[in-house]
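Narrative of activities, Objective 1.

The group set out to show that a structural description can be obtained from nothing but a protein's sequence at a throughput compatible with the screening campaign. Below is one input-output pair from the validation batch, recorded exactly as produced.
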Amino acid sequence: MDSAERANWIAVLAKAPLPLLEKQLSTLGELPGYSFLRSPEIGLAMVRGRVEGTGQPFNLGEITLTRCVIQLNVSSGGAIAGFGYVSGRSQRHAELAALCDGLMQHPGWQQIVQTQVIDPLAAAAKATRTAAAAQVESTRVNFF
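Output recorded for this entry:
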């Protein structure tokens, strides 16, 4: 596992709608237990931007952020910590994202979670983006 792969699945988990995340997690059956290293907590984070993506960074504003850190209770694989960061105030979403992150780091769970949770969530997000792009395209006016 490299950091780019992990960043990808953490992004998928953070952007997924909570009902869909819960539905996909329910397909896994019995999950290992976990304990909180950091209970879900709500705070603020500064969002920074750049003009056209290349200019000097500037503070755009603050967003509400919920974070959670769990430790899986598994006999093999050593201590595994899972992190969940989501925008908004959903403590359950942050907890489930942290659980999935932890499971993705466990060799016995990684492939199962990838195929039954991460891939379907990524496909649903892509379908949503495609539908939104098609709707915008249908209202485009070409002047030339």
